[in-house]
Each structure stands twice: as C-alpha cells, then as structure tokens.
Amino acid sequence: MLTFEPNIVFIDDKEEQVNGIIKLYRNEGAGVKFFNADLVDGDPLPNTQYTNVNLVYLDLYYGNDFDIELCLGWIDSIISKNSFYILVIWSKDTHHAQEVIRELEKIEKKPFVTFVETKNEEYKNEDSSFKWNKLKEKINSELIAISEIEELSIWKKSILNSSNIVIGHLSKNTNTDALRKKLQKIIIGHGGTFLIGTDKENTKREVLFDALDNILTSNSKITRPNQAVSQVNKDELYNIPVFPVTDIDSKLNSWFHFKLIENSFQSNYITSGLISYFKNISLRKNYSILNDEGVLRFLSNQISVIENKPEMFDIAVIVSRPCDIAQNKFGKNLKLLSGVLVKKPVRDKKNKFKGASKEPLSLKLYDHLSFSDGETNCTLLFDFRYVFSLPQEIFEERFEKVKVFNKELISEIQVEYSAYSSRLGITQII
C-alpha cells in the first residue's frame, strides 16, 4: 500500500497553540503532521518511523513536568537512526534543551541543526497569539546561511523525481495484471529462469529492487533540477584551491565500499561481494592468509605491538561472477578470496595503515572503514594468491556473513584478480 508521509512534524500537547504555523506550512504545500502529546488524551507513538521528515517542532512539557524519556520517545518513534532532520525546540522552558540533544546523540538521532526557542513575549502578539511568521523567517534565514544544504537538497529532489518517473512509466496506461507481468519480466530477465515458481520471494524482491536501482542510477542525472549554482556555493563549496584536509570519515568511506545492509542475513543469501568470517578451523588452517610468511612480514608492525594490539579476523569474499549467482549458474562451487579484517590497526604519522613495506602485488588493502556499529577504525586486506572454491551448503555451514561489497568495488576486485592471475612469468634460456 502506498504511504503518504509528512515532511514536517509537530509534537505538542496543545494543538491550538501551533495551528497558526501549521497553516503557514500547509499553505506553502508542505506535508504537515501534528501529534498530540497530551498524557491523557494524546496520540499513540507511531508504529513505524517516517522516511522523509526534515523538520520537527518539539515541545518539552506535556503537562507540568519535564520528562526526557517522553521527549526522546517521540523523536525515536519518528526519526530513523542517522537521518538528516532539523529540530526546533519550542517550549515554555528550554533549559533542558542541551540535555535532550545529548541524549539524542546517544541513540544516534542527533539533529543536523537545533533551534531553541522559548514561548515568551518576543513571539507574542497583543492578543496572546504567536508571531509565527517571525519564528518561521528566523529558521529559514539561518538555514539559508548553510549553503551546502541547498546542493544536497537539489540532489535529493533529483532522486525523488527519478524514482517517480520510473514508477510512472511502469504504471502508465496499464492495469493491475499488466503491471504485475512487467515486474515479473524484470525479475526473470535480471535473475534468470530459475526464479520461475511460487517460492524464493525474498530473492525475487532483491532482484527486482536491484534492477530498479540500476534504472534509478542511470536516469537520476537527467532529472536534476535546472537550477543555477548560487554565488555563495561558487565562492565556497565549489572553490577548491587545494586538497581539503579533514578528519577521516570511516562511515562515509564504508558507504562507498559496502551495500547498506544491516548485519542480519537470511539463510541461503548468496551474492557476489559477500564478506564472511571463517567459522571452521580446518578451512582457516588451509586458506587463512595469516599462515603465509609473506603476509606476516607485511603485517609485522601490527603483530609486534604489545599494548593495544590490533585484532585480526580471517575473512573471505565471494568473487563468483554476479550474473552467474543471479541466475544460479555458478555450478556446484562458489569461488572465494581469502583476506583478513584488522580492527584498530597501527598507523603511521600520516594516519595510514602501517605495513612493514609496500604491500606485495598479491595484496589488496582497503583502509579507514567502518565495518559495523562501534567498529569505525578497520582495514581489510586480501591476497589474490588465496582463492578457493566450496559448495554452497558448505559455505553456509562454515562461514558467518557480515558485509557486502557494492557492485563497483567487487568488480574492481575481480578485474585486479584477473590481471594478477594472468601475469606472465619470464623464461630465461641459459
């Protein structure tokens, strides 16, 4: 069922106090939702979080007393983790505001910007109504000053526009039966005829969504709004005289490396780029790159540390061809490439992974990654000499799935592995 979600949410126990500003936003075409936070006659917390809420007005008092758990509960039920949103604390007393923001940060729901405004005489008219235009204009003016947000909003609009065009084309001039058959043709065309039947619905959904993702990516460029770059962004954001030096964002790096999949995988989930831990001792003995003398020499600066010694875990990534896996044509065995995950590695003065020398040609290193929640300082190392094959049922039994490389990165690994394995030796005639 299609859902129609708000862009702006108000949380207050007195609707009449905020009706004025709600009307202002609705007159501009914004989708607004009011939640009555009254402790007796109020609304229940939403069962599911919203995906497109950009602005939240939050009252801190529902009754006479401040209860931080109630405030956090409302935000927690509306906003998903690490989402972008702007918070306006609009309350009769705001001295608890920083406490609320600190607690929101702990649950990974800290707003991008917070406005702390008091319901006082500054915003009141003579008839005790509020000067909503003044409050709204103050918020807008401060947001406009953050010019980089304008560029991100243009990008977001192009993505939404592109997705609407894709869905619009699929559903245009068609009935339910024809739409169903279109989607089924996409599933079979991209996933293979082995998906014909009444089962494998989760696999079919994955294939369908991956196909639609590809369409979205290839078309979003042509749906970008024809909007000129503002002068302030010409002067600041897009004026890049030297390479910018900032703190390393391992989570952002990981977004460029991994699919955004939580660490929970359905049984029999197999895809090219799937990274897993070794669970089996005998496999680790045969295929762990930590048993190789050359790898150990390269890692000697990591291994020799006495205090705060880095943790190392044997991993393997599936490098079978994506099309073969998608169409169930990879044969009896999956092809895997062995590697190691290094948590909290030793780094040099330039904050790079400290190897004993330049990594050998057979090694491929990915640094400054966030591998999972709480593990934001990780390095992955693979060795192209350690490729092996296993039946799918053995893989399911003896490995623990943790991450998935995105298709661009696994393609890069496959190309580099192919180049390495096809290097010619030199035969000298003596």
Primary descriptors:
430 residues, alpha/beta, six-stranded antiparallel beta sheet, five-stranded parallel beta sheet, 11 strands, 18% strand, Response regulatory domain-containing protein
Tally of alpha and pi helices: 15
Spans where pLDDT lies below 50 across 5 or more residues:
none
Major beta sheet summary: 6 strands, antiparallel
Q: Work out the number of β strands.
A: 11
CA-based shape: globular
Kindly name the structural category: alpha/beta
Percent range of helical residues: 25-40%
Across the major sheet, the strand order is 9-10-8-7-6-11
- The span between the termini is 76 Å
Provide the β-strand percentage band. Answer: 15-25%
Radius of gyration: 27 Å
Compressed to H and E, one letter per element, the order equals EHEEHEHEHHHHHHEHHHEHEEEHEH
Mean pLDDT over the residues: 85
Organism: Wenyingzhuangia gilva
Protein name: Response regulatory domain-containing protein
